Amino acid sequence: MSAWDELTGQQAAIASLREAAADPQAMTHSWLITGPPGSGRSNLAFAFATTLLQGTTTGTEAAHTAALVAARTHPDLAVLATDRVIIAIEEVRRLVSQSQFSPSIAPYRVIVIEDADRMTERTSNVLLKALEEPPPRTVWILCAPSAADLIPTIRSRVRTVRLRVPSVAEVAELLVQRDGIDPVLAERAARESQTHIGMALRLATDEDARSRRARTLTLALGVQSVSGAVLAAEQLVAIAADDAKAFTAEREEEERAAALRSLGVEPGGPVPAALRASLKALEEDQKRRATRSVRDGIDRALVDLMSLHRDVLLLQLGAGLELVNEAIRGELEVAARDRSPELSLEALDAIAVARRRIEGNTPPLLALEAMLITASGRVPALGSHS
Question: Residue 222 and residue 231: Cα distance in Å, rounded?
Answer without folding.
Answer: 11
